[in-house]
């Protein structure tokens, strides 16, 4: 009975993420048969949980919106995950008053105080056992994140001053999504003056205000807001394909804060695709691996690096 209860709680926890899950996904996540998933879904409905099911190809399960669901307590793994996330992300912010990092630091120090005794012990043990290296990311006012979230939820226009290249412009936008990409926060919005989609770095936004004017959400031109952010961030960059005589893990380690695609092409050989400004940046980062690599494209970067290597060798 205990196993059944735990499985039911795990199923309910998944459904409360507001995601849609196929039967196959639930089978994999819960480690049970398809028949057991269907039986557990029926049992949740008997308990009063409004689980909606869409049959056929593309079918899924989800909790119906608009119903109050009793809260669930964290389990041990979730508490550990929270502590690790707070420790890692708080270290990326200098912790100025009102910043995301400062709020995370406070939450990190008091999470175990609001948990039941058993879970509090796990949280305290994790905190006592880890250290997180500090690395610098732009400071974000947590109040701005909240204002933007509220405007997106209520479909309210935003206005703000935006700093870029030493200049500031006043912008009026319809906010759509907030995106976290490579240690920075971005706002994806429809610019009312430019009459087009724009991506704004949140740390460059000043004097943010929520307007009373409402709007009807527009359809995104890409599959996800993240695609727009990536396209905007790398607008002036070039695609590079490099074959590196190193493992995927080693390559990912030296390019930890870059958006990359990796492919295993042999034992200790990896092909990586990314976008960057020039070959100097690429050479600098890959040199940390101290292994051979070949620039597959663009060809002129390969030639430039060969000329540079020859000059360094004095040939």
What is the gist of this entry?
By secondary structure, this protein is an alpha+beta fold. The protein folds into 4 domains: 2-63, Winged helix-like DNA-binding domain superfamily/Winged helix DNA-binding domain (Arc Repressor Mutant, subunit A), CATH 1.10.10.10; 76-129; 142-229, SH3 type barrels, CATH 2.30.30; 238-313, Alpha-Beta Plaits (2-Layer Sandwich), CATH 3.30.70.
Helix and strand layout, with pairings?
Elements (H helix, E strand, L loop, with lengths): L1 H14 L7 H8 L3 H13 L4 E4 L5 E4 L12 H15 L9 H11 L6 H13 L12 H13 L1 E9 L2 E15 L2 E8 L4 E6 L3 E10 L10 H9 L4 E7 L3 H7 L6 E6 L2 E8 L2 H8 L6 E5 L1 H15 L2
Antiparallel strand pairs: 1-2, 3-4, 3-7, 4-5, 5-6, 8-10, 8-11, 9-10
Helix pairs in contact: 2-3, 4-5, 4-6
Task: Explain what you see.
Helices cover 40% and strands 26% of the residues. It has helices at residues 2-15, 23-30, 34-46, 76-90, 100-110, 117-129, 142-154, 225-233, 248-254, 279-286, 299-313; strands at 51-54, 60-63, 156-164, 167-181, 184-191, 196-201, 205-214, 238-244, 261-266, 269-276, 293-297. It has a 5-stranded antiparallel sheet with strand order 6-5-4-3-7. Strands 9-10-8-11 form a 4-stranded antiparallel sheet. A two-stranded antiparallel sheet has the order 1-2. The N and C termini lie far apart (76 Å). Residues 4-69 form the HTH deoR-type domain. InterPro entries: CBASS_pafABC_assoc_protein, DeoR_HTH, HTH_11, PafC-like, Tscrpt_reg_HTH_DeoR_CS, WH-like_DNA-bd_sf, WH_DNA-bd_sf, WYL_dom. GO terms for molecular function: DNA binding; DNA-binding transcription factor activity. Keywords: DNA-binding, Transcription, Transcription regulation.
